[in-house]
Specification:
With about 450 residues, the chain is of the alpha/beta class. Helices cover about 40% and strands about 10% of the residues. It has 18 helices and 12 strands. It has a 5-stranded parallel beta sheet with strand order 2-1-3-4-5, with helices on both faces. It is elongated and about 100 Å long.
């Protein structure tokens, strides 16, 4: 969801305030914010008092625009409603429930009169102000006030569907780090390679953490992640650092490639009559979703890599998938290689389907969980395309929602060979992953782990 900004104003009394409002509204929306202004959002018949309080308590930041007539410098007296709104908003801010309040003063306001008329609470905050006598062109004052307010609000980039909650989780970690130690937060942004306008946005009072989270999810800052995480150590506990790193890491995976694992270009076939969830790719009514690709070819060697691709595809939505790897074992008895591979696959399927102990692995018993994608990962090395295609077909007949991710590094197995072997529903992850890219990602994981471990010695994976 877009961050919300509530604007309290006296535009009906002061034309200068209306001028600032006319500048702020399109600018804030272009920056990616959901802006509430009473004159736009209240509808005929609304309980306006109740609606305004609701908006004041749900916003992430607020702007209070005051002109001389709003604060009561004319004969009509001050605007009681703007005064009340300013007190509620500043009260939320000082209690820690609102990130920022930006007062904007336009025109020849006498602050002593404003305080005497009940606006002392909002004037306890530093205001964006240009007195008429201070401006070379009095008409430019509204533009200057608007510019000063906008300078404290970072842009929020548009993200692919479903990624808002992912970015929000990362932003919450960053907000904690900034609250504890702002200097280390700024140093972390610099260590990540941000400079110029980007670094200027990092110092904004609202939107900064979301802006940085979205930049991190773009993947372009990944080479410097260990340096950035290291700078955040004064502001986050070891556990929070580890959680933050694990949230960010899958963004190294190409988004379009990751989508192929959960029905991107390959597509999904919802059960007839099922309403499709555009984010999770699952039917809202709990019906089964059958992936059009029963086998996904990923040119990688590590189960960890497949897991990263899946995490990227589901935007690390908690509980959105289950994944298990097939053991690298080969028959040492009279069984054929195909029979042995199928047995190994079925041996780990109870973990894939999250079945309790003692339940039979029977197609009549096992059902898909509409909120969870199921993946089985197997290495093609040492196995033939015929073996993999035969087993994948057998599994797909019993469990049509299951996706088999085949790691094809150091093997002759390809999409073409699997199709020729009798598996018609195959897709190759493209752009294809190179050995150098997989190695770099794996090494990055251990560099991050070392940053968070005493002595810099990695102690495990996440």
């Amino acid at each position: 969801m877009k961050p919300r900004i509530f604007i309290s104003h006296g535009a009906g009394r002061d034309p200068e305030v209306q001028h600032v409002l006319d500048i702020l509204l399109p600018a804030l929306r272009e920056l990616g914010y959901d802006v509430f202004v009473d004159s736009e959002r209240l509808r005929v018949g609304d309980d306006w008092n109740r609606q305004l309080y609701k908006e004041m308590y749900r916003c992430d930041a607020a702007v209070v625009l005051l002109g001389p007539n709003t604060v009561g410098m004319d004969s009509s007296g001050p605007s009681e409603w703007v005064r009340r709104e300013s007190e509620v908003l500043v009260g939320r801010h000082k209690a820690g429930g609102l990130r920022a309040v930006f007062p904007g003063l336009v025109g020849n306001i006498t602050t002593s009169v404003a305080r005497r008329n009940g606006f002392g609470t909002v004037l306890s905050l530093q205001a964006a102000q240009v007195a008429g006598s201070q401006a070379e062109d009095i008409g430019s004052a509204p533009e200057v006030v608007a510019k000063r307010i906008l300078a404290e609000i970072a842009p929020v980039m548009t993200m692919e569907a479903g990624s808002d909650s992912w970015a929000r989780r990362i932003a919450n970690f960053l907000l904690t780090a900034r609250s504890v130690n702002e200097a280390s937060y700024i140093a972390a942004a610099e260590a990540a390679g941000l400079s110029g306008d980007d670094l200027f946005h990092i110092q904004s009072k609202i939107g900064s953490e979301t802006f940085l989270a979205q930049r991190l999810l773009s993947g372009e800052l990944h080479p410097k992640l260990p340096d950035m995480i290291g700078e955040l150590r004064p502001g986050l506990s070891s556990d929070n650092l580890r959680h933050l790193a694990s949230e960010i890491l899958p963004a190294w995976v190409d988004l379009e490639a990751a989508r192929l694992l959960t029905g991107g270009a390959a597509g999904l076939i919802p059960a007839q009559g099922a309403e499709q969830d555009p984010v999770a790719g699952q039917p809202a009514a709990g019906r089964m979703v059958m992936p059009s690709s029963q086998v996904v070819v990923l040119d990688a060697s590590q189960e960890w890599t497949a897991d990263q691709y899946v995490q990227r595809s589901v935007r690390r939505k908690p509980g959105a998938y289950s994944l298990q790897a097939v053991p690298d074992e080969f028959p040492m008895d009279e069984r054929t290689a195909t029979e042995a591979l199928e047995e190994l696959c079925r041996m780990v399927l109870p973990q894939v389907f999250r079945m309790p102990p003692g339940f039979a692995l029977s197609p009549a018993v096992v059902r898909s969980d509409p909120g969870v994608r199921n993946f089985l990962v197997l290495r093609a090395k040492g196995r033939t395309s015929n073996e993999i295609a035969s087993v994948a077909n057998a599994l797909h007949r019993d469990y049509p929602w299951l996706t088999v991710i085949t790691l094809t590094a150091d093997s002759a197995c390809t999409e073409k060979s699997l199709r020729e072997a009798g598996s018609p529903s195959v897709v190759t992850v493209r752009p294809e992953l190179t050995e150098a890219e997989e190695l770099a990602a794996y090494q990055l994981k251990f560099r991050l782990d070392g940053v968070m471990t005493p002595g810099g010695v990695p102690v495990g994976c996440y």
